[in-house]
Amino acid sequence: MDTPGLTTDAAGRSHCTWRTSAPEYPHYHDHEWGVPVADDIQLYEKICLEGFQAGMAWITILRKRERFRRAFDGFDFSQVAQYGEADIERLMQDPGIVRNRAKIVSAINNARRACELVAETGSLARWLWAFEPAEDERPAVVDLAYWTVNPTSPASVRLSKALKRRGWTYVGPTTMYALMQAMGMVNDHLEGCFCREGIEDLRRQFKRP
């Protein structure tokens, strides 16, 4: 019998149940989710996409991710920071992305805030990784079996507040906890998932910025 939150595949491997809930998830689960990231552009992309995901299913964003990348100049925040009203209108006409004006404006705003942060501290990655929680600091709510509950944690609350003070938007505690999961700041592959130990190894080897 499968452990709650885990499913055993035909090869006898146990994995997070959500891995097989959509065709795009196995690759994302096995090769991306929880892998530590230190690249500023990749981190800005993750912040943006988690913001666009707010109120929607992550699979919707994942399926549109390549179109998002083309629409937002590869999420090079130095370029996105230069966007103006014409770019907003261009993005609002793009059926391949989420055409939500507030979220598009937020992505542009956050690009400008990212430029400010890098100018001040030298690295978006270095600033973000300073919020990595202690090993014993767990989220207040965890239900990752089907992603039906988006947890927060004390660390994600701190990160959210710090970003909001700097003028970032769509960076609430739930969104920031999803970012922490995606960028490898926490390892939320369930105990027993075949990816969990591999992610732990990557986290041990990862050189924090």
What order do the helices and strands come in, and which of them pair?
Blueprint: E1 6-8, E2 14-16, H1 25-31, H2 40-53, H3 58-71, H4 77-80, H5 85-92, H6 101-121, H7 124-129, H8 154-165, H9 173-182, H10 196-205
Antiparallel strand pairs: 1-2
Helix pairs in contact: 2-3, 2-6, 2-9, 8-9
- If classified by CATH, what would the architecture be? Orthogonal Bundle
Cα separation of the termini:
42 Å
Number of domains: 1
Beta strand %: under 5%
Which CATH C-level class is it? Mainly Alpha
Radius of gyration: 17 Å
Q: Roughly how much helix do the residues carry, as a percent range? A: 40-55%
Strand order of the largest sheet: 1-2
Indicate the mean pLDDT. 92
Q: What is the makeup of the main sheet?
A: 2 strands, antiparallel
What does the overall shape look like? Answer: globular
- Given the structure, what is the number of helices? 10
CATH topology: Endonuclease III, domain 1
Strand and helix order: EEHHHHHHHHHH
Uncertain parts:
145-149
Number of strands: 2
Class based on secondary structure composition and strand pairing = mainly alpha
- Write out the CATH superfamily name: Hypothetical protein, domain 2
